[in-house]
Specification:
Elements: H1 5-39, H2 45-63, E1 69-71, E2 74-76, H3 84-87, H4 90-113, H5 117-120, H6 126-152, H7 166-175, H8 181-209, H9 213-241
Helix pairs in contact: 1-6, 1-9, 4-6, 4-8, 6-9, 8-9
């Protein structure tokens, strides 16, 4: 199969741009979060409460005049850190740790998939292979960001995968033993799609659950990247199910051969559901 390397490079560059946009406000906000938490910890409880109330009033006042600025694939929140006390809550830490556990599992799953000949070898579909490698690295960055946020709030980093989803992945991987290239590729794509969708739905829900505005920005930004992963995998899965793996290509002329549904299959819902979202404490550090 001939692949237009220039087109593939451009597609991956767009994905990395989206990833960079998602991560940029996160790293900037984490430094602010650390400083706010240090300032929000006076020795006397009354002083702590006074600081919190004064800080909250000041930021709420600024929010009435400062708009929310949206970046491509990410969010930059003006006046973020509206509640220093809430930002330090154990709930935010647990939610961040659970998110990190989901990302850890995704990294491990893509790493395992790349050991399979029909995903990781030179004979594998070049687009699927490259997608798996780039996406694995993006998930590793997401895990680092969630853990950095948890540690900034005084929590521990979560280095283990989500325990509730590990059996699901292990069962799926075991079922791929001895599978043909066609069946194996479809199985890997289906597993990756399930994990990406869980991540996206979890972060949609987490955006509403976390108290810190910094963490809301983090979840909203990363959720957009996971949604992109889902869209790509849905398109790939549809072509595999249609028996047209040759169309998973960036070769010149391929676009004209795609079915009409190719333009919409990656976006089945106008709004993300949260049916498969992980519970907030599911992957928290015990």
């Amino acid at each position: 199969m001939n692949v237009d390397q220039r087109a593939l490079a451009e597609l991956l560059e767009e994905s990395q741009d989206l990833q960079a946009d998602a991560m940029r406000p996160t790293h900037e906000a984490l430094d602010e979060l650390v400083e706010v938490n240090r300032a929000a910890s006076p020795s006397e409880p009354n002083e702590n409460l006074q600081f919190h109330e004064e800080h909250k009033r000041g930021v709420l006042s600024s929010l009435t005049t400062a708009p929310l600025l949206a970046a491509a694939g990410g969010l930059t929140l003006v006046g973020a850190l509206a509640s220093a006390a809430s930002a330090s809550s154990s709930q935010d830490i647990q939610i961040l740790q659970t998110a990190a556990s989901i990302e850890n599992l995704a990294v491990a799953t893509y790493k395992t998939a790349l050991t399979l000949p029909y995903i990781g070898s030179s004979s594998a579909n070049a687009v699927v292979n490259k997608f798996a490698r780039v996406t694995m690295n993006q998930h590793a960055q997401h895990a680092d960001a969630f853990n950095a946020a948890a540690k900034a709030l005084g929590g521990k980093a979560q280095t283990k995968p989500d325990p509730a989803f590990v059996p699901v992945v292990n069962k799926a991987v075991a079922s791929l033993s001895g599978a043909s290239a066609a069946k194996g590729t479809l199985g890997v794509v289906g597993l990756a799609l399930e994990l990406e969708n869980i991540a996206a739905e979890t972060y949609v829900k987490d955006t509403t659950l976390v108290a810190s505005s910094v963490n809301k920005a983090l979840f909203a930004s990363v959720m957009g990247v996971e949604a992109q992963h889902v869209a790509v995998l849905l398109a790939v899965q549809a072509l595999l199910n249609a028996g047209a793996p040759q169309l998973i290509s960036l070769a010149p002329g391929t676009a004209g051969m795609l079915p009409a549904a190719a333009g919409s299959v990656g976006f089945p819902n106008a709004f993300y559901k949260t049916n498969t979202a992980a519970p907030a404490t599911q992957g928290a550090v015990k």
